[in-house]
Design a protein that fits this description.
74% helix; elongated; mainly alpha
Length: 151
């Protein structure tokens, strides 16, 4: 069985969820924030836990975590590292080829702290932007559905 997840299918799933546009957008944004953190492999579990704690839409939060996948992981973590290095003032050169799980483990707390700080800042910015984008998309979609229903 071939599992294929596309962003178009994820957006269609998000649009079909029955919740307020604000709650869906917030849930998705929290998922985006989670997806940008360096705890790769724990994103889904974090999404479920935070969804329960903050009464978010679980499906929308999990969909938000899928922003980070094997194709986007290295660029996201590279951006995390660059932001964190800038904030901390770390002038150590670090290339994308060193952003492997093995390299992160071997360099321990030094690289993890930089990644974590960068991911928090990048995550807040990305989540804020995605909240507004998804809320706008949901508003337009629900307005179109309401207009169709009135006809």
């Amino acid at each position: 069985m071939k599992l294929r997840i596309s962003y178009k299918n994820l957006l269609n799933t998000l649009l079909s969820l029955n919740d307020s546009k604000e709650k869906l957008a917030l849930s998705f944004a929290v998922g985006v924030f989670i997806s940008i953190n360096p705890f790769y492999g724990f994103h889904t579990m974090l999404a479920i836990v935070l969804s329960f704690l903050f009464k978010l839409n679980k499906a929308a939060t999990i969909i938000g975590t899928l922003l980070n996948n094997p194709w986007t992981m290295l660029p996201i973590y590279y951006i995390d590292y660059k932001i964190g290095a800038f904030i901390i003032g770390c002038n150590k050169q670090f290339s994308i080829k060193h952003l492997t799980f093995k390299a992160i483990l071997s360099q321990g707390k030094d690289i993890f702290a930089v990644l974590l700080i960068g991911s928090i800042i990048f995550g807040v910015i990305a989540s804020f932007i995605m909240y507004h984008i998804i809320k706008y998309i949901l508003s337009k979609y629900k307005r179109r559905i309401d207009d169709t229903a009135k006809r």
